[in-house]
Amino acid sequence: MKENTSYFETNRQGWNARTELHKDSEFYDVKSFKEGKSSLLKIVDGLLDDISGKSLLHLQCHFGMDSLSLSRKGAQVTGIDISDKGIETAISLSQELNIPARFIRTNVYDIEQVLGEENFDHVFTSYGTIVWLPDLNEWARLIHKYLKSGGQFTIVDFHPALDMFNWEKEKLEYNYFNKGVYEETLENTYAAKEQELILKEFFWIHSLSEIMSALLDHGLQIKHFKEYDYSPYNCFENMKERKENEYVWGSHGIAFPHVFSLQCIKP
Predict the structure, then answer these.
(1) What is the pLDDT of residues 189-199, one digit of tens each?
(2) What is the pLDDT of residues 144-173, one digit of tens each?
(3) Residue 256 burial (CB < 10 Å; 0-12/13-18/19+)?
(4) What residue spans define the domains of the chain?
């Protein structure tokens, strides 16, 4: 991973800057969360409905709202993220609200250095996570390592078909298959579009076959897969709300996948 060190460092700084805006944004609505509202929307909430008393590793947890919502459901949660500010904010929320959870700042690829030989009943990741990872083979190896036998991995993320679009220009611009790193400079962040924030970022697009093959190659067994024709978040340009927490891109009326969910079991 040494060849990607500079990419990771740029992205870490970007997520530090985002966190400063996200934690105070209407998008994340931390006020309602502090009053007891769960941050988990229906897709994730429905897939993780039996976690009370179970240990759960949350990869790329941002500033911890979903991790703490899972803790409220009874899980014993460890959240990891590359962002210093994200982990600091997560710890602060955990302490302020007296919601037990452990948060560790680390790159996904470095978790062996901080977790050692621990293992978990569940590993979980969601929404805009794997685009920051160049190597899904190593990602899948680590998921397999940190799952107990019989443990479950759950991912809910934006569909790679959706990642092909340039949102503002409303046209195809990116490869569906992994053709290497992309570099972009943004002028704001999805959760606070009115705030000017210059962000340089590096990301990778992974096809569904690449995602599934990596998990299967490391011995995980797929038990659930589903595609959804909407996003639960209004986080891209030119999206329209068709019903509560269901946003679709464009006004063409053509249904295409926005999100996918996948669950695997470690035999």
Answers:
(1) 887 878 888 88
(2) 999 999 999 999 999 999 888 876 777 788
(3) middle
(4) 2-158+205-227+261-265
